[in-house]
Amino acid sequence: MQFQDKGKLAKWLAVIFLLSTLLIVVFDLAGTRQQGESEARHQAAGLSELLEERLSSGLRETSLILKSASDSNLVQLLLNKHLLNAEQQQRIDVLMHGKLRQMPYLKQIDILDSACYVLYSSQPQSPTSQLKTDYCRWYHRNGSQDSSFTSTRQEQAQGGIVLVQKLLNQDEETVGMVVGVLDKRFFQAEVAKLPVGRFGEIMVLDQRQILQASWPAQTSEPDQPLNELQSTEILERYDNYLQFRANSILDQEPRLYSSRMMDGFPFRVVVGIAERDFTRAYHDKASMAVLAWLFTAALTLITLRSHLGNIRQNRLLSASAARIRESEELARLTLDTAPVALILVATETMRILRANAPARDMLRIPSAPPRSDGQPAILDLPLHLEPVSDWLQAGEAISNRETELKREDQSTLWAIVSVELMPHQQIPAALIALYDISQRKALENELEEKNRLLNEMAITDPLTRLCNRRHADQVLKEELQRCERYSQPMSVAVFDIDHFKQFNDSFGHQAGDNVLLAVANALSDCTRSTDVCARIGGEEFLVIFPCTRLRDAEKVMARVQQVLAATVFPFTEDKVTFSGGITDWRPGDSPSGMLNRADKLLYQAKMAGRDLMLSDGNSE
């Protein structure tokens, strides 16, 4: 009954173990799905903010160019006289075309008087009167105190983004305006730079809900207002910011959207992350988890079967030991016929008296020669079996203990060992029972190695062998908690490879992979084992420097730049460079806060000419 109860208990424990691991897998997958959606929300918010900043910066830069053009004495003279001589006309042409070259997408500058007649245009074919334009109506509207105005044109020939600055005379009176037309390809060029995944979507809309730029790019420009996105769930709302879940008005794809109004300009940017993109990792992990659970279930059933076999063997062993205690002759018969390895050892001399066939095979000992008097043969061989010899010398009784045994030839095996002491016999002895579990141990070791490989695959980028984005986010969160608890310094660096798309386009994706591997090797060579290097995007990398001040992190990234600059690639003579930002921990920081600061520094480094690593200490 005792062995039957143990068998039932083992079966119930196996069922409970499999059900609990299945529940763990289900909860882990649910957490992965929720984390993927949270990351997609953060990504959409960050990309919409980055696009809004880039577009606003370009429009402000254009406004500054127009304002600097309007401050010229030639412009004031033109407004006063309405006509310039040939030399003055040539000088103002040189001035305006110089301003046009300052902004690649600025294609036209006009100077209008207070009656909205064109006094000068960088495009000779421009109409002489602009009375019907929206900015002329704005200019003449009573009570308008704004000094600038922005709108869009939809004409095929003159379409674009219109930026207007009022012109003042020396008495601060409005005497005209300067009008700049910015090509809408400026919006499209900035939109194309954002990584929104394979099925993501980006839109830039004006105040009339007319599409100005999009990704994927539309083959034709719509001249009709788009219907408002019908959100199915509002996730977050502020004054000029909205995050929601909706189906796209262009392709009906379900996405997480982040919508943001441009500060000071009548445009709105909308960034959508497709569910197919941010749930891809969840589906991959689900497949791996199911396979891992099935493998675990199979191994559990094998182990259960082995354990039930052990229980049956122990039951036989107990019966055999009882028979031995009842009769020496019965013990000898049981010793020879038992299906498990049995050894009878004299505890005083530590010599083997008898051993059955399984024991002789297991310990590689010879059979005893038969005696002429017909009495049972005695082996009389020394026992060389550690640690069983130590237990016998200490007088320990052992029951079903798993241990690794070392034989006389120094070879090893795993076995379940039981030692029954029989001190009251004519010759004090001990009965040793051995059950070989080497094969089961090998399976357990194989499972442990495969689990280790699965864990490593879950946190490693398959190409560069650096950490992946998910593991880096978890490490950054833990390091921030440590900084808050102990006030230790910490720095992070975010950078991406300059002109990486050119490597793929010019030399193929294998060349791009070689560049990524070179960057990963440079990071591994220049950082400490405690630093965490991760690939968080296509060509974007993140380095976490625990217990590191900002200036020390700057030195490390400078060494990485030097190592990468000295790396020679067989497919090009150009050097590979990267640009990024470095920031350090501040009390109250969140992971997204630190990464946003580093991303802004990265953008500044790109705008400053690339091949730069800007930090909070040198970005000014």
From TrEMBL:
Q: Provide GO CC annotations from the record.
A: plasma membrane
**What's its EC?**
2.7.7.65
Q: Which InterPro entries match?
A: Diguanylate_Cyclase, GGDEF_dom, Nucleotide_cyclase, PAS-assoc_C, PAS-like_dom_sf, Rev_trsase/Diguanyl_cyclase
Q: Which GO terms describe its molecular function?
A: diguanylate cyclase activity
* Membrane spanning stretches: 12-31
Enzyme class, broadest EC rank? transferase
What protein is this chain from?
diguanylate cyclase
Q: Which organism is it from?
A: Aquitalea magnusonii
